[in-house]
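Late entry, iron/sulfur cluster complex.
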Amino acid sequence: MPIFLECQRCTACCRWPGQVLLNDAEITRLAAFKCLSEHDFIQQFARLRPDRRGLALKEQSDGACIFLEDENCAVQPVKPQKCREFPNLWNFHGFEKVCHAIPCEVSAAEYQHRIVLIKAKGNDRAAD
Ligand code: SF4
Ligand code: SF4
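Prediction complete; structure with ligand written out below:
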């Protein structure tokens, strides 16, 4: 039976070092959610990636994501797809040591349904 990792919203993944990459559709959605023009959103919340191949979210002084407010994501309804997909669609060696997602055994159909939902959320919003 497939294992689906159920996020417990501990926000550990919002605090560890790394980049939250942004594509054009995500910038459009996030800017609208913050009631900002895309230009102003980028000025306030985005930075150039070190490889200069696009933008990523800025970090706070302690390395946490700029949108982490206490224990909550300030842009939860429109958070980037990279955030939505962790840890089921991507993760890294040893992530279980810091991520509190609970492994749940589900049927193959249920697993597929949940994965489609994760992907569809981003696609739906990208089409908004
Ligand atoms: S956008 Fe939200 S979910 Fe994604 S890293 Fe930032 S605070 Fe966490
Ligand atoms: S570290 Fe794991 S359990 Fe915690 S918010 Fe991120 S995905 Fe969810």
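The pocket of iron/sulfur cluster (ligand 2) is lined by residues 7-13, 86-87, 99-101 (CB under 6 Å). Will revisit in the morning.
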